[in-house]
Amino acid sequence: MDMPSADVIVVGLGAMGSASLYQLARRGARVIGIDRYGPPHIYGSSHGETRITRQAIGEGAAYVPLVLRSHQIWRDLEAQTGTSLFWACGGLVLSGQVGQALHHGKPQFLERTLEAARQFGIAHEVLDAAQIQERFPQFILQGDETGYFEPGAGLLYPERCVQVQLKQAQRLGAVVHTGETVRRIVPLNDGVEVETDQTRYRAAKVVVSVGAWAAQLLGEPLAQVLRVYRQVLFWLEAPDPQVYGPERFPIFIWMFGSAEGEHFYGFPQVSQGVKVATEQARTPTHPDQVERQVSEAETWAFFTRYVQGRLKGLGPGCLKSATCLYTSTVDGDFILDFHPDSERILVASPCSGHGFKHSAAVGEALAGLALHGRSPFDLTPFRLAQRPVWG
Ligand SMILES: Cc1cc2nc3c(=O)[nH]c(=O)nc-3n(C[C@H](O)[C@H](O)[C@H](O)COP(=O)(O)OP(=O)(O)OC[C@H]3O[C@@H](n4cnc5c(N)ncnc54)[C@H](O)[C@@H]3O)c2cc1C
Fold first, then answer.
1. Domains in the chain: how many in total?
2. Which ligand 1 atom is nearest residue 50's CA?
3. Is 89 in the pocket of ligand 1 (CB under 6 A)?
4. Whether residue 204 is found in the same domain as residue 100
5. 102: number of CA atoms within 13 Å, CB side?
6. What are the pLDDT digits (tens) for 307-338?
7. Is 35's C-beta closer than 6 angstroms to any atom of ligand 1?
8. What is the CATH number of the domain that holds 184?
9. Is ligand 1 within 6 A of the CB of residue 350?
10. β partners of residue 7
11. 302-325 burial by CB neighbour count: b if 16+ within 10 A, else e?
12. Nearest Cα to 166, choosing from 55, 335, 38?
């Protein structure tokens, strides 16, 4: 029997993979998507109900065209499917005088955000503590804070985004295999062979978007530039569902000190409880050996260090929690590049904890690279060779 074949195979169908599959199918390519689980699922990096999106990207100017295009794609998908994906409830980046904690590996995050807004003409306001307090009385401030408020920022529903793009891709002819694990990718002279735990496939190109499993599947040189970190999300009890609702409360990122970890972020209430979280980059883990349980001690430690005295009436009751994986480079920047061993293999992972908002356009970039060898976006800042090696 002939091996199943395609123009492009997409391995891993989370945020990046579902977007790539959809964009490839839209361009008329014959595509096969393969995932070891059944996305959307809770084992990788694209679950937990909500993701922040903002247009002025403090992580770097190169990201701004990706997020602007992603917002258009989300809106197009909403129009095509009637599914709500993006809620522009506004976003606040907040920093105290001493609030210089790194965010996504970047210092001076508020200043960098403001710079990006000015460079790209993104609507925003700069608010002092009294103005923030008046507009959002849910925050308890010290009085020395500055806020960058972006009305066009908001939240995405990640599981819906993944699901909708997979469905649309399938409607356009993409074939999706779930519950199938890719074991090996072998470049050949005239194509590439993808070996799974069930069969083998052939294609002209492969997009590898396996998130936290990138080092495991691709080995070096990915393994030396990536680390996986367990993160925890908490849904805290709110006094009244209206108080933190999206009509009254924005997504926020708050740098309240300069020491490691002295920042956290949160969302308006869109389900049971208000989702809040911080980030950790101290203890690496392995994607197949992550502690998925969140202890009461962990929840209490989070509440007392971050929420108590900063968000009025929130917690300490925690309605639920979840773990999720960051796969981070040293500098927090993405890898969107050909594999150094083969122009037939594209690597679209991972995104150091800030990739979701860009993922729809990343799919477009990868489809362009896979089919025509060029992307509509400048991807030079995201080259693998530019990523430092973890010490
Ligand atoms: C707690 C948390 C909060 C975040 N908050 C934000 C935010 O507010 N805003 C934002 O923009 N970004 C945020 N991010 C980052 C963003 O969610 C990620 O960058 C993005 O989801 C990564 O998508 P991915 O496609 O690389 O990985 P995933 O979505 O995990 O997809 C990888 C897929 O590959 C599959 N796979 C793995 N190995 C194999 C194999 N061998 N064979 C077949 N399939 C395989 C997996 O099953 C999985 O479905 C956050 C991440 C986390 C964890």
1. 2
2. 8
3. no
4. no
5. 10
6. 999 999 999 999 999 999 999 999 999 999 99
7. yes
8. 3.50.50.60
9. yes
10. none
11. bbeebbeebbeebbeebeebbbbb
12. 38
